[in-house]
Design brief:
This protein has two domains: about 100 residues, Translation factors (Elongation Factor Tu (Ef-tu), domain 3, Beta Barrel); about 150 residues, Nucleotide-binding domain of ferredoxin-NADP reductase (FNR) module (Rossmann fold). The protein contains five helices and 16 strands. The strands form three sheets. It has a seven-stranded antiparallel sheet with strand order 4-3-7-1-2-6-5. The structure holds flavin-adenine dinucleotide and FE2/S2 (inorganic) cluster (FES). Flavin-adenine dinucleotide binds next to strand 4, strand 6 and helix 2.
């Protein structure tokens, strides 16, 4: 009970209405909700716990990074990739449907120094926080390169939107878009090209580990946003912990964004 009021005091816990649903490729959805109240500040990397409506077999809320925010219209949008029961139900939401959201949760990416040069690497649903990151880069005059990896062209989303914030590169395993192969084999990682002040990554763990290694070996600081499975989403249940050099940390509270050298999975 105490925890509930603690959350209520500085977080939004409100029913939101669906205002837009897009389905850019099979299994991938962009869903926009309108909040009934003014939005709090939402930073790149923050996430929301979204209740899955009309799904008695999906008891727990599901965590999703913010894709975009419109403070004036009180709109928050999310990229939802269908992988199981909860995401399938959320993907079936229609304009006018309602569900309850809690946010903003978690920490945020630290924005690099103004006028610096950064690389942002993502795959799968990990690309969701990149629009808000791009907006923060633009505000700080940061030169950004986004590298998006996927199995094929249909998995490489948001390239048009990200072009507003920097250069966009891609890889696909079947060669249908960008360079053929895994994201970490892209030519941007060749020593002469890999000259960035900071690297950001979000996506499947093996990809983030590989990106973290490449950055660390090149002496470039790197932040990764983990997508561990979660239950409560605000630090109580401990089901999301990740081992770090300072003990186990809750990805939902001390994360989801960590410096890769802080994470034990990195070594
Ligand atoms: C901080 C954070 C931000 C996230 N942001 C996004 C986002 O922007 N867009 C998006 O599409 N997804 C995002 N995710 C992942 C998303 O929360 C899960 O895909 C979702 O909870 C799965 O729910 P489900 O009911 O569909 O799957 P379930 O039915 O619960 O699970 C289906 C299968 O997927 C596995 N699984 C479930 N969750 C995860 C996970 N997090 N990592 C690895 N395997 C998992 C299960 O073990 C099971 O095998 C994020 C996760 C976190 C922690
Ligand atoms: S999800 Fe409960 S502590 Fe992180």
């Amino acid at each position: 009970m105490g925890h509930f009021f603690m959350i209520k005091s500085n977080k939004i816990v409100e029913e939101h209405i669906v205002t837009r649903v897009e389905n850019p490729s099979p299994g991938n959805y962009f869903i926009t909700f309108q909040a009934p109240v003014d939005l709090p500040e939402i930073k790149p990397g923050n996430f929301a716990e979204i209740q899955v409506p009309d799904a008695p077999d999906v008891f727990l809320r599901r965590p999703f990074s913010f894709l975009d925010v419109d403070y004036e219209k009180r709109l928050v949008s999310f990229y939802i990739k269908v992988i199981g029961k909860g995401t399938k139900k959320l993907a079936a939401l229609k304009v006018g449907d309602k569900t309850n959201l809690i946010y903003p949760l978690g920490n945020a990416y630290k924005i690099a120094e103004p006028n610096s040069k950064v690389l942002v690497v993502g795959g799968g649903s990990g690309i969701a926080p990149f629009i808000l990151l791009g907006k923060a880069f633009r505000q700080n005059n940061i030169e950004a390169t986004f590298l998006i990896g996927g199995r094929s062209k249909a998995d490489v989303l948001l390239t048009k939107e990200l072009e507003a914030f920097g250069k966009v590169l891609s890889t696909t395993e079947d060669g249908s878009m960008g360079e053929k192969g895994m994201v970490t084999h892209h030519s941007v990682f060749k020593p002469n090209n890999f000259t960035f002040d900071k690297v950001y990554t979000c996506g499947p763990d093996p990809m983030m580990k590989a990106v973290g290694d490449l950055a660390t070996n090149a002496g470039i600081p790197c932040e990764a946003s983990l997508e561990n499975m979660m239950a409560c989403g605000f630090g109580i249940c401990l089901c999301c912990v990740t081992p770090t050099h300072e003990g186990n940390k809750r990805v939902c509270l001390e994360g989801p964004v960590f410096n890769v050298n802080y994470l034990k999975w990195h070594n």
